[in-house]
């Protein structure tokens, strides 16, 4: 905690500044402090042994339920203990001995049951942290078993001897018993006679039941019926009469009773004891000025200590500034217990912890890309571009406006830590995950740029010191500016603005698209609406013809729209396991395309640039603004279009899941880095929908308002193993960068969530295959039905024509049978003749 660190700093400074007095007694270590009389001295925990208290839940996780008096020792794999430490953090029972267990020189780790609390620290298990200690545990266990066996043999021998001593002589057999007759006093017979049921003297009532012979053997069902309904004059002589009874309806009464306890006011006066006059005399211990300067200047003990704890202290103070003091951890402990966390209610909301905005660099601009600095959780960057339309750009006459990327730190939400300068707007950028001082960016004119912030590291430190001192010096001096280290030529770059950029990992890509493993992250890929994907190395290469060092892409491929003519105007891309040797990637287009591509050149393919499209799907309307692979299921990708988002699976052309159509435009989507079944969808009205497929797939689990304008980009902190919190960076259309903190219910996976999500994906995949199979059969049925309808229509037309011809012939026959034809009949015959002729 910051208070503890500050106390440590003060204690260290006082210890160095105050020399020990001559007559001071030597410090007595805590271990050698005398033990008070009457209290037994407890043994100390020996070296190589860690004393821990394991709860029932931890014993269940580690498989130690059966460890007890019957089984005193068991081995647990180091991987399981380390995984429990990473998953539960400070709540793990193995956390006090984490470093000792990780440094153990053997695997698996041996744990011994300690029911008697040998060391008096309340622990119930001993952990052998070294191989020598584990061997000692085994030897002590075998020795204990041998002693128990010897004790059991001695006890059995003693019991046998005791039984022999206590053995009694057999008793003499008794003589034959005499059976005597039963003698009664008369009361028993009277009781039996009183309890006997005797028939009355009157003859019994005989009731005869009859049924038809056809119903013999069937089950008999008795029931109630009104006598009037069953009255038959042939069988009954007296007609039944229904009595008019009055039924009394009880009235329900709701009554409440309030029990108020009797209050009493009691006052107690506590009188302190008598005052005692006491005096204390102190004398300050001063350090020599020269010695004090030696401690505080660079290289001194105090300066070294302060420099060592500076970053940790700043991080703790910043975490305290964003910590929710009103959250009751004990109240939420039972709600998020591992046994009861199968169903998340999602009632906790996402809260904004910090926002960043610069009046100089981001005012009047919109955020286009955001990324976290890999080496620092408290630093992130955002690029802001001019929100001009095509007509406004034409009126500007192609004048270039300088662009920038702002790098922010949580210590200052108003002034950026430093600025990455570019000749035009930066539409996309990305930090090198291995070396955060290297940043690659894509510009609005299609060119690629690389910044190296290691060259201005001293300026950044000096600017931070100046800001920490309250802005001493010239206040007009802005943050440090980093200018491009490498800038590609227009002829070797894209012809349209760069829409996405991705680092490829520790691999290299040659001119044929072949992937080879390397030690460093030296390659990245860019794409644009010109339909090309360029693979760039971070280092310059020598042109074999001109012998000049130049920066050119090592490989190039284009993307088409599949069966539809034209190029795929790429918007976003995501690569699939390049470190595993694959050369495939996902890409999205401006016309609703989602393509699965392969940038490796096939044998015999001499086309330059090659066509990388393998499978192209057209299931979106409008631009598909983002695509992202699931961190838990690498073959599943999330695509976000204008009105809906979809889940695609590698190798399938159709989406396995389509979300309901939204009433507003969708901007971008992202998978949760810690929960397999949760996705986040940003919308153009400033809201973010949280979808949990393990709970419901027809509507979002919750919706949170971030801003009032369009959300342009989102990015998760890339290290979800941090248990202190999970952060989401959101950039809006006003150039403001928001940092949202996720609640525990959205960052902690429930039991079996990955298996449930995998089952959901498999069911959706089977559903799509079943629909496709049925569709093929239905197409055959539709063709057969259309053929039959065509035949029936042709037959009906033929019959109608024959009937019309027969009617015409009959009419002609009637007319010809007449002796004289009128002028009207002649004209009609001529008309019929012309009609048959033409």
Main beta sheet = 5 strands, mixed
The structure class reads alpha+beta
N-to-C terminal Cα separation, in Å?
A: 105 Å
Total of helices: 14
In terms of DSSP E residues, the strand content is 15-25%
Compute the gyration radius: what is it? Answer: 45 Å
Helix residue percentage = 25-40%
Major beta sheet, strand line-up: 6-7-8-9-13
Oligomer: single chain
Number of strands: 40
Low-pLDDT stretches are 1-38, 336-346
Indicate the mean pLDDT.
Answer: 80
What attributes characterize this protein structure?
single chain, 40 strands, 838 residues, 14 helices, five-stranded mixed sheet, alpha+beta
Describe this structure in words.
- This protein is of the alpha+beta class and 838 residues long.
- It contains 14 helices and 40 strands.
- The strands form 11 sheets. The protein has a 5-stranded mixed β-sheet with strand order 6-7-8-9-13, with no helix packed on it.
- Strand 32 and strand 33 form a beta hairpin.
- Helix 1 (2-17) packs antiparallel against helix 8.
- The model is unreliable at 1-38 and 336-346 (pLDDT under 50).
